[in-house]
Specification:
4Fe-4S, 709 residues, 48% helix, Rossmann fold, 3 domains, Substrate Binding Domain Of Dnak, Chain:A, Domain 2, 6-stranded parallel β-sheet, alpha/beta, metal-binding, EC 1.2.7.4
């Protein structure tokens, strides 16, 4: 068969499937793809840093942000500047938009109104060759016979929960590999910064803690990885060792106690095959079971292992946003969720040797700044954020294209996930070198390192050398640059251990403040930000403001932490914006009303805090005056995390509405039935004022059940 015949067969197939002889893809041109080799004309795009409306001082920005959320103007009219509340993004969006470059907010506008209502409701399926199938009154079943309830529930688990769970468990597995390398290969540059934490959790795992710390690190890492790889029918050792006792009893009764995480994901995906399981409730309960594995073989254990390597959280005042970039320094951004290579690079960049290498290249020095959740982890770990080579935290995932558009980012190194596919185009335009530090994420025209923990020092050297060469090129080409001058001062480093330490070694003072009503309860505002109308950080900010005014203490994690930082809510001065009870507590302790726990993966630390509070009160976790909120959830890990919260018995609020509304059975199960089983439930609400009232009402209900006024 000739090449021409093959091409004709493709075109004929398209005609047979769609009724015409042209695919949608036929209309696309080179500029519509992300391969940088197809963008030779990218340098012809004119960037003008002067033709933009500059943001005022941070004090004035904070005042504007507070007035802005009162206006209810977050619609398509005036979009996106009416939803962007980060002052640096407001400036850099204008730069990129006026240059005609693709960017996240403009892409959202381009997708309207073509986003499919069937997909929004979960009523579409592409699992087999008889599809795609869409369910409606005219066609109430797919070709195979699947009905709306099964299709929605199956999509929910397959497209969201299995991927999110596997991602978090994968992350934990890579961290455990790194811990093992730290014990076996001192030449790797890896360190065991918190040996006491290693001993504590190894002891809880039943390991011999009297052996040398390096051997204990290897033993504990193997214990973690072996549990992840265990069969699904063998009960998880990490869940048994670290989950609340009363929860474990319930999970066993309901058949939700998981086995090995990877095997659990494989089992769940097998159930999703065409013509396998058709019971929608089974899919949803399986999602809760995955949520338990997601927590204990993913988030919680990941947090413990990374803190052993990088140091436990430490409460401190730090800084955030693009104003931390320096035109005459070598600027390295580390992006993603897995700062395993980045922390070795920070160690090296902090030495006099590497600072001198930077100066020899004509720079004032070299600094590594974190971005998205990776940055939120680095700004919290005491072993990282006090080093000379560390420069601070940048922003949320929405800002990364605009970050490169400053022209001063020399190296953008990234691991999984939240590195957008358009970065090669921006890197080519603005002279940034891209480097993937893990083969699980590859972008076109981009260097990729294999993940070899035993050689991390060697790989970190390569990354720093690349950054120095990129800086030399930037100076040789004398490129025009612009750095938005805005920086926020924020208090960071909160965790179970650091909060308890600040309270004098016990949660008793916090419990007393909850009991006397100064703190009505706790809300965790976690997860992502989205480009949607009414969001872009605004929904997070508005809800959080309403909660602290109602004397509800807020814990943040993920890109929401960046929102809290650039709106000033993680500054102790924000105590003035609280209700009288919470205000008094914050002023007495010198803390803000929003305690940032760091990254989205640090949600595992929040559940740890909740468990210790429940233990101190002598109650099950579902009795706590606590709400979990993801007001701008984005992707699969957030849905898996919501299943974790349901497993632990909590009310979970998510917005925008997930793809479940096509089935009243699925909606009823997640919003009502699960609670009758002793689990939590899900609430979907877009309106900020209604959301605040839902949180307040639930917390007051739980206070009443505990006998608190």
């Amino acid at each position: 068969m000739s090449d021409k015949d093959i091409r004709n067969s493709y075109e004929n197939s398209a005609e047979r499937m769609r009724g015409d002889n042209k695919t949608f893809a036929a209309d696309l041109t080179d500029k519509d793809f992300n391969d940088p080799a197809l963008h030779e004309n990218v340098h012809d795009l004119k960037v003008d840093y002067n033709k933009i409306e500059k943001s005022p001082s941070m004090e004035e920005v904070h005042q504007w942000q507070r007035e802005h959320i009162k206006k209810h103007d977050q619609s398509k009219d005036g979009y996106p500047l009416n939803v962007i509340i980060d002052p640096t993004m407001r400036e850099m969006y204008q730069v990129v938009h006026h240059a005609g470059m693709t960017n996240v907010f403009d892409r959202f506008s381009e997708q309207q109104p073509t986003q499919c209502k069937f997909c929004i409701e979960g009523l579409s399926c592409q699992l087999c060759a008889n599809g795609p199938c869409r369910i409606s009154k005219k066609a109430p079943r797919g070709v195979c016979g699947v009905d709306a309830h099964t299709m929605v529930a199956r999509n929910f688990m397959y497209r969201h929960v299995t991927i999110g769970t596997s991602a978090n468990i994968f992350h934990c597995h890579q961290a455990a590999r790194t811990l093992k390398a730290a014990g076996e290969h001192p030449e790797s540059g890896l360190k065991i910064r918190d040996p006491e934490k290693l001993k504590k959790y190894a002891d809880m795992a039943g390991l011999d803690t009297n052996q040398p710390i390096e051997k204990l690190a290897v033993a504990f890492a193997d214990w973690v990885m072996n549990d992840i790889h265990a069969p699904h029918h063998v009960e998880s050792k990490t869940v048994e060792a670290f989950a609340p006792t009363k929860r474990k009893e319930l999970w066993r009764q309901l058949g939700l106690f998981p086995g090995g995480g990877y095997s659990e994901v494989a089992y769940a995906q097998t159930q999703c095959m065409t013509n396998f399981t058709s019971d929608p409730v089974e899919f949803l309960l399986r999602g809760v079971r995955l949520g338990i594995a997601n927590e204990y073989q993913g988030l919680f254990m990941l947090n413990i292992v990374q803190e052993i390597l990088m140091g436990t959280q430490e409460i401190a005042m730090k800084q955030q946003n693009m104003g931390l970039l320096k035109e005459n320094r070598i600027n390295i951004i580390t992006n993603g969720h897995m700062p395993l290579l980045a922390h070795v690079a920070i160690d090296l960049a902090s030495t006099d040797e590497w600072q001198q290498k930077a100066k020899a290249a004509g720079a004032e020095g070299i600094q590594i700044l974190g971005h998205v959740c990776e940055g939120q982890q680095l700004i919290n770990y005491e072993g990282m954020h006090n080093q000379k080579g560390y420069g601070g935290q940048e922003g949320e995932w929405l800002s990364q294209e605009y970050l490169l558009a400053t022209g001063v980012v020399d190296l953008f190194m990234f691991d999984y996930n939240c590195t957008v596919p358009t970065m090669p185009i921006f890197a080519k335009k603005f002279g940034t070198k891209l480097l993937s530090t893990h083969p699980v994420i590859k972008l076109q025209g981009t260097d990729t390192l294999d993940f070899v923990p035993e050689k991390m020092k060697e790989q970190a050297v390569k990354a720093l050398d690349m950054a120095i060469e990129a800086f030399k090129n930037r100076k040789t080409e004398n490129r025009e640059t612009y750095i938005p001058p805005h920086v926020s001062d924020c208090m960071v480093g909160f965790s179970t251990e650091s909060v308890k330490k600040a309270l004098g070694g016990s949660f008793k003072p916090l419990i007393e403040q909850i009991a006397n009503g100064n703190i009505r309860g706790i809300a965790t505002i976690v997860g992502c930000t989205t480009a949607r109308y009414g969001q872009g950080g605004s929904n997070i900010f508005k809800i959080t403001k309403g909660l602290i005014e109602n004397n509800i203490l807020v814990l943040s994690g993920g890109c929401t932490s960046s929102v809290m930082e650039y709106t000033g809510l993680t500054n102790p001065k924000a105590a003035e914006e609280c209700g009288e009870g919470l205000k008094a507590v914050c002023q007495q302790l010198g803390i803000p009303p929003v305690l940032t726990y760091g990254a989205c993966v640090d949600i595992g630390k929040m559940t740890h805090t909740a468990k210790e509070l429940a233990d101190a009160l002598g109650v099950d976790t579902n009795k706590l005056p606590l709400v979990i909120g993801a007001p701008e959830y984005l992707e699969q890990k957030a849905v898996a995390d919501a299943c974790t919260a349901v497993a632990l018995g909590w009310l979970v609020h998510v917005a925008p509405v997930p793809s479940i509304t096509g089935s009243d059975v699925v909606v009823k199960t997640l919003t009502e039935t699960t609670e009758t089983l002793g689990l939590g439930k899900v609430v979907v609400e877009m309106d900020a004022e209604k959301t605040i009232q839902i949180y307040v009402d639930h917390i007051e209900k739980k206070r009443k059940e505990l006998g608190l006024s």
